[in-house]
Here is the input.
Amino acid sequence: MTAALKGVSGVDTVQVTLATKLATVTFKPQNTVQIEDLRKAILPTGFKPADAVIEVRCGLSQFQGATALQVTFSNQVYRLADGKDAEGKELKGIVQRLATDAVGQKDKLLVVTGLHEDAPPPAKEGEKPLPPVLRVTAYRFEAPPPAR
Here is the structure.
């Protein structure tokens, strides 16, 4: 599985722990890798992809009138939903707090962590497919990297 994941363009490092059934993947700067690229790479190895917890650098946008996330250097958009903490307790209002906190942080880089849900149902004929849902569990603001 390690070789398959490293073969995805934009992947920097891969660490697989079979005992915990966990793969940790880091990406090269300015990559355009999407979760589905990783899932497609894993399937031929005989392993079944499971839930993915992702951390993305992003900006906020709108999708059908709701707060959405636009991944930096990518055209990937996520619909946002409240996630759950490590004990399974719903983090009610975290997406609203994120949107409110972001207003005063325009000069900072937004980093969001959450559970990537499985692909949404296929679009009906003539409709655009829905973006996937990211169930937000944490977010932070960072200083942007220095310009080169």
Remarks:
- The domain at 51-148 is CATH 2.40.50 (OB fold (Dihydrolipoamide Acetyltransferase, E2P)).
- The longest helix spans residues 94-102.
- The two ends are 35 Å apart (CA to CA).
- The chain has two domains: 1-50, 51-148.
